[in-house]
Amino acid sequence: MTANILTVDDSASIRLTTNVTLTNAGYTVTEAADGAEGLAKAKSSSFDLIVTDLNMPVMDGLTMIEELRRLPAQAGVPIIFLTTESDADLKARAKAAGATGWLTKPFDPENLVKIVKKVLGR
Amino acid sequence: MSTLDPVAVFRMEAAECLEAIEAGLLDLTHQLDNKDLVDAVFRGLHTLKGSGAMFGFEALAAFTHHCETAFDRVRKGEVAATSELVAAVLAAQDHMRALVDQPDADHGDTGHKLLAQLQAAVGGKEAAPAAVPATAAVCEAPAKKTNSWRIRFSLPANSMANGTNPLGLLDELRDLGECTVRANTSAIPPLDELTPTELHISWDVTLTSEQDRSAIDDVFIFVLDDMELSVEEISGQAAATAAPVEEKAAPAPVAAASAAPVSPATVPEFRPVEAVPARREAPAPASQAKAAENVRVPAERLDELMDRVGELVIAQSRLSQLASASADIALRSVSEEIERLSGELRDTMMVLRMVPVATLFSRFRRLVHDLARETGKVIELVTEGESTEVDKTVIERLADPLVHLVRNSIDHGLETPADRLASGKTEAGTVTLSARQAGGEVIISIKDDGRGINRERVRAKAESSGLIQPGQPLSDSELLQLIFAPGFSTAAAITNLSGRGVGMDVVKKTVEALRGAIDIVSVPGQGSEVSLRIPLTLAIIDGLLVRVGSGRYVIPLSAVEECLELSLEEDLRSRGRSFISLRDSLVPFLRLRDLFRTGTKPDVHQKVVVISTGTERVGLVVDQIIGDHQTVIKSMSKLHNNVATFSGATILGDGSVALILDVGHLVAAGQQQEAQLRVAG
């Protein structure tokens, strides 16, 4: 069974990689270029999983996660955030904001799929 | 589009990212304490590093990491943003660009030098962890030995709302080996106090597995920090590896865990930071936000489309010709319809190719910044009319000439701060780049408030290099035009003259190749202004179709000032002198029939088409003016590179080819003829 995944990243190349990887793994992918766009898309349709970057213009990933968690409809939707090694502090904040898990950048596609499967439980 | 190469996308993006970083840094030089700018630069560096590492640009990632670290310290207030730091990162940014373009090339020790500079700028101490890679990798341990574990865990009450699924965790444990799971439901509150989204169950799991301890930690990797987890090895010796993880994961013993499964103590730890994000929502650089609304199209596709539109225009004019000769009303009306449509399509196409000159001007901020440091002059760059739009090809080709001109303005035009103060000016010199549209042309000018061009030196130089006769009378504009002469920019000229000779002939050639023209105005002691007048577009122009002998030629309509009749008397009178009087001024003219050696007799009613570039005019004598004509410009083959009289060719409605006259060249030829006659007579 497929799942709808929303990926939020300001980097087109990372969006592309994520999209290709997840689409090849059989998931349906929707893209957003920043937190505000991600939030809007999450509000207008339902996703089984959200993968987001943290550092983004307009609205950063952290704020987006907080906003999402305030929406009753988004309760229980797993959110994986992309982070770099040096973001230890950010990681803690993202978790506190309500993220489910994280993936350290640079990630390799296999790892992404593995973690998506883990979080989705399928 | 799914076949796009992520690396290519990354390169494009990295270029944008670097531009944004550069713009941020340049802004920062003027306002070192602007926190938003620091954040913006940091974010740019961070993104570049992250994506770079993802797409295999390891050297870039490692190098950028240091700059990011430096900016992170500024962001956190540990060090102040100084102009040294900004300059160091600006320089480093060029290196990053090189690392993006040629990741595998040997960049020598440029990187080390830059890092040393950076280090010095932030006060020296930085840990410098070099490599960034490392992923949330899951280790597959080779251990074959079977172990049995007793695992007890409870999750924070809010973990299900945050997307963690305990059933998934249990499934994963089951995947590791044989499992017995027992849920501890003692902490579940009475029904009327129960919040359904909260988790109150803890679990006891007995696992027999070939995997080692780290596999269990991997199952809990996302929740490890907040949860209570205890893992005991039941059979065999207590594994030494278990100890450190357990310490980190759960200081609380199992009993405490089941008594207080929610462990609220761990949650508040994260609360104090909730207020932070507000500041980080600072608006992104405008360009980045805008980019999302645009569609990016490779330039060659636009060119292809332009070609097709060009062919359509040609086919349409053939159709018009056929239709006008036909009595069929229906055919005529279709032809008119198509003429209108192709005209509109052409206009739309033009707009697609237009880009604001801002993209061109923005590059100069960096140039000016660097030149100011290099020359020790204080320079203010002012840009005007940045939203003026020009054909993208024009913009690309203008970049180099403009660099020359701006360089010249700063190198030779502007005085040193001391000299400026001595002559009663402000310490800072101003260079103004402006663009504006005027009819079918865009005028781009570079103005400085420096010392102006020294006429005596220009004349002396021109005389000594044989460009003009000693004492030859020249108008001021003619004198100034001398600096564009190829022989003018010699080594001696660069050092001794007011120096505007460097590469100016190249500038002029480039501008003329764009069918544009250059005007100079210079007031001694007050500065100079060089204006480039460039046609708005290159691909399709409105042209005046004329006949000379049996051939047909196109004159770009934008250059045409007026058309006159050349009466037989005037023709005879002017023979040998080649001037006509036009409202009290003498305008030289060229007989195209002679120039092209048509060998035909002139028509009785010859016409003169007066064309101009800037202030200079010349008349072209033609046999017949056919009318205006939408001209699709086709460039000529390399074999025709030396044919200066023509700038291109076009295909007429009947399929025949007409050459397009090069206005710049013809005006120059006319002026030369005038000069010779003046000397002679």
UniProtKB/TrEMBL annotation, chain A:
Question: Which Pfam families does the record associate with it?
Answer: Response_reg
PROSITE patterns named in the record: RESPONSE_REGULATORY
GO BP field: phosphorelay signal transduction system
SMART domains in the cross-refs: REC (SM00448)
Modification type 4-aspartylphosphate: residues: 53
Q: Which Gene3D superfamilies match?
A: 3.40.50.2300
Q: Does the keyword Phosphoprotein apply?
A: yes
* InterPro entries assigned to the protein according to its UniProt record, in alphabetical order: Bact_response_regulator (IPR050595), CheY-like_superfamily (IPR011006), Sig_transdc_resp-reg_receiver (IPR001789)
What CDD domains does the entry give?
A: REC_CheY4-like (cd17562)
Domain Response regulatory, chain residue ranges per copy: 4-120
Could you tell me the keywords of this UniProt record?
Phosphoprotein
Q: What is this protein called?
A: Two-component system response regulator
Native source organism of the sequence: Rhizobium leguminosarum
Q: What is the lineage of its organism?
A: Bacteria, Pseudomonadati, Pseudomonadota, Alphaproteobacteria, Hyphomicrobiales
TrEMBL record, chain B:
Alphabetical GO biological process terms: chemotaxis
Residues annotated as domain HPt: 1-103
Q: Which residues form the CheW-like domain?
A: 540-672
Which residues carry the post-translational modification Phosphohistidine, per the record?
Answer: 46
> What is catalysed by this protein?
ATP + protein L-histidine = ADP + protein N-phospho-L-histidine
Which UniProt key words apply to this protein? ATP-binding, Chemotaxis, Kinase, Nucleotide-binding, Phosphoprotein, Transferase, Two-component regulatory system
What CDD domains does UniProt report for this protein, alphabetically? Answer: CheA_reg (cd00731), HATPase_CheA-like (cd16916), HPT (cd00088)
Q: Where is the Histidine kinase domain?
A: 290-538
Q: What class of enzyme is it?
A: transferase
Q: State the EC number(s).
A: 2.7.13.3
Q: Which InterPro entries match?
A: Bact_Chemotaxis_CheA (IPR051315), CheA-like_dim (IPR004105), CheA-like_homodim_sf (IPR037006), CheW-like_dom_sf (IPR036061), CheW-lke_dom (IPR002545), HATPase_C_sf (IPR036890), HATPase_dom (IPR003594), His_kinase_dom (IPR005467)
Name of this chain's protein: Chemotaxis protein CheA
Q: Which organism is it from?
A: Rhizobium leguminosarum
